[in-house]
Design brief:
The chain is of the alpha+beta class. It has 11 helices and 42 strands. Bound molecules: alpha-D-galactopyranose.
Length: 660
């Protein structure tokens, strides 16, 4: 009898176990068993059975063991082969999100929306999804950001599974090309690159390195240098202090055994003359996150020189969050933590290489990373940065939100922390660029220029198309606010090895997407801050960062931001006016467009597309010389139209110059 009971018990148990996989004639695929790294996510990495931040999945106060934690915008396209039965899930905002999280979930079958959650907020109970999949070929799962940006939009697909009878459903991804290099090698003969204008305040230390490629040794000369400046003829580093305001036209020569190059550049000495072209450099955040250390910063500075980046105009070495000690000194002075030994020695070293050094803090009690911020110590911290030899300050918002909440939240209150810091910086004996980082609140582009040189326009970027493209292509309405000394900052470059912490990974952007990223940022006159680890750059990454003709578009003296003139059928055309009367034009194949069903690449093919720009669209006439900027080759002269094939998520970047 006992044996029989055991047998029955065992038989029952087997039935229960196997029913998790096969229900009558159906099999069941839990979405969390898929390779969730393939989910396109505009922030972080989607996780199986965990929230995007790695916590237990929890929606509306209830926890769940199974599911996928993701972040809007999030896209997953599946082949369900017309043999699936249904899709079942619960959806909601994860409880780990802040109160401002708001998202919408969609399920689409063969381009048709079959489920829409409406706007969901933190605390809402999970909504049930049941979708009949009979006859359906492709299933798309989408999370959008509501209409308030994707800040904090932690989204969960809970207990999500597909029942099917034939082939196992599989993820559809778009194939990516192998890295391909378009930038020609720089010649051995000298070439002078980088910005043709630079500014500084009277009587404050001046540092400018002539950016020149070509074999070393090289001899530099500068004619008409303003009084107070001197040039190191071997390194091309110009230092000193100029007392008298004015615009100085300096004739620079670089010579080596292969030849000679010459260029005239303008040194502007005067008040408020910083960042006359968008700052170019590196920032520690996208690679090291809070694990940044003095050694890593020093290695990055060394790499900027040894990789040759310095010869293309790359200048700033910016330490982001994570350098601060947990307590101030008895006199209130901010201290460095155990990962750093001596900021002044570090900046001396960086300056000796001909580079500049930046630092980060927040107007709040704490920084975004939870380190000490500058609240009530603004003047003292600015003094300390001056003493440390800092050239650039990124001033974040984060916990300042707590102070802001106590106010009437007026326009003035948004500006206040940046006015305070800008005044503190202006009292210093050195120039310190002020970079505002408050993600675009209160239309910062309309007033940021009164308190600093650049301002972040969006939340944080990450290394996905969903993030980079959404941020980059959304800058079209801010073009009018960019001008010399004032720049919209769509966040740092996510190419090379990134990681936001101790372990890095190669960027998730495809090679074509990386061309789009650099081309778009160049057109946008955006600050160019390398986010990857410079000590491990491959040839492809380096080729993206050392194309002088592309960089010249970004650094153009006119300081105009490109305007979007066409956005249609997944194609965008952006045009930037240049100082010499030419125009830089980016022709982008963004693939998908904003309509919910067109957000997916349904056939999973990296289709090239043909894009055309006519002189009529550009409001111009006459003959133009067309040059491909990535390959640095003249294409042809044309007097009506230019048409080209553009890779999926890729770009063709040209310059057209009137032929007189
Ligand atoms: C915010 C900023 C980032 C970075 C971190 C540091 O998130 O937007 O760029 O500076 O803070 O904690």
């Amino acid at each position: 009898m006992k044996r029989k009971i055991n047998f029955l018990f065992l038989f029952g148990l087997m039935c229960i176990i196997s029913s998790a996989q096969t229900t009558s004639n159906f099999s069941q695929l839990w979405l969390n068993d898929l390779d969730v790294s393939k989910i396109e996510t505009s922030w972080g990495f989607s996780k199986a059975n965990k929230s995007i931040n790695g916590n237990i999945l929890s929606v509306g106060g209830q926890s769940y063991n199974k599911g996928i934690g993701t972040h809007a915008i999030s896209k997953l396209l599946l082949n369900v082969n017309k043999t699936a039965v249904d899709f079942n899930a619960l959806v909601g905002v994860d409880d780990e999100a802040n109160n401002n999280a708001s998202i919408e979930f969609y399920v689409l079958c063969d381009k048709k929306v079959v489920f829409h959650s409406g706007l969901m907020k933190k605390g809402d109970a999970a909504q049930k999804v049941h979708v009949n999949l009979s006859g359906v070929n492709k299933l798309a799962l989408l999370v959008t950001a509501g209409n308030d940006g994707n800040d904090n939009d932690h989204a969960d697909w809970l207990e999500a599974y597909i029942r099917y009878s034939g082939q196992t459903p599989s993820i559809i991804t778009t194939p990516a090309s192998k890295p391909y290099i378009l930038t020609p090698k720089t010649p051995d003969s000298p070439r002078i690159n980088g910005a043709k204008i630079t500014g500084a305040s009277p009587n404050k230390p001046f540092l400018y390195t002539i950016a020149a490629t070509g074999k070393r040794p090289m001899q530099f000369k500068a004619k008409n240098l303003p009084k107070g400046l001197s040039l190191d003829s071997e390194t091309g580093i110009i230092t000193g202090k100029v007392a008298k305001s004015g615009n100085y036209e300096v004739k620079i020569t670089a010579q080596n055994s292969f030849g000679k190059a010459q260029r005239t550049m303008t040194i502007v000495i005067g008040e408020n003359k910083l960042a006359l072209t968008p700052p170019m450099g590196w920032n520690s955040w996208n690679c090291w996150g809070l694990s940044v250390s003095q050694d890593k910063v020093k290695a990055s500075a060394d790499a900027m020189v040894s990789s040759g980046l310095i010869n293309h105009g790359w200048t700033y070495i910016n330490i982001d969050d994570g350098w601060e000690a947990s307590e101030r000194a008895a006199d209130g002075e901010i201290q460095i933590n155990e990962k750093f030994t001596d900021m002044r020695a570090l900046s001396d070293y960086i300056h000796s290489l001909g580079l500049k050094m930046g630092i980060y803090t927040s107007p709040g009690k704490l920084t975004c990373g939870g380190y000490l911020g500058s609240l009530h110590h603004e003047e003292q911290d600015a003094d300390t940065y001056n003493k440390w030899g800092i050239d650039y300050l990124k001033y974040d918002w984060c916990s300042y939100g707590n102070e802001f909440e106590k106010t009437d939240k007026s326009h003035h209150e948004y500006m206040k922390p940046y006015i305070t810091m800008s005044e503190a910086l202006s009292h210093q004996s050195r120039d310190i660029v002020h970079s505002l980082c408050q993600y675009g609140m209160d239309d910062v582009w309309k007033w940021g220029g009164q308190t600093g040189q650049l301002w972040r326009t969006t939340g944080d970027i990450t290394d996905t198309w969903e993030s980079m493209a959404r941020i980059g292509f959304a800058q079209y309405d801010k073009a009018q606010y960019a001008q010399p000394g004032n720049w919209n900052d769509p966040d740092m470059l996510v190419i090379g090895h990134v990681g936001w912490g101790p372990s890095l990974h190669p960027t998730r952007l495809t090679p074509d997407e990386q061309y789009t990223h650099v081309s778009l940022w160049a057109l946008l006159a955006a600050p160019l801050l390398i986010g990857g680890d410079m000590s491990q750059m491959d040839d492809f990454t380096l080729s993206l960062l050392t194309n002088d003709e592309v960089i010249a578009i970004n650094q153009d003296v006119l300081g105009k931001q490109a305007r979007r003139i066409i956005q249609k059928d997944g194609k965008e055309i952006w045009v930037k006016d240049l100082e010499d009367g030419a125009k830089a034009i980016g022709l982008f194949n963004v693939g998908e467009s904003d309509n919910v069903s067109q957000l997916f690449n349904w056939d999973g093919k990296a289709n090239k597309t043909s894009i055309e720009i006519s002189w009529k669209d550009l409001n111009i006439s006459g003959k133009y010389q067309i040059r491909d900027l990535w390959t640095q080759k003249d294409i042809k002269t044309e007097n009506a139209v230019f048409e080209t094939e553009v890779s999926y998520h890729g770009v063709v970047l040209i310059k057209i110059t009137p032929i007189k």
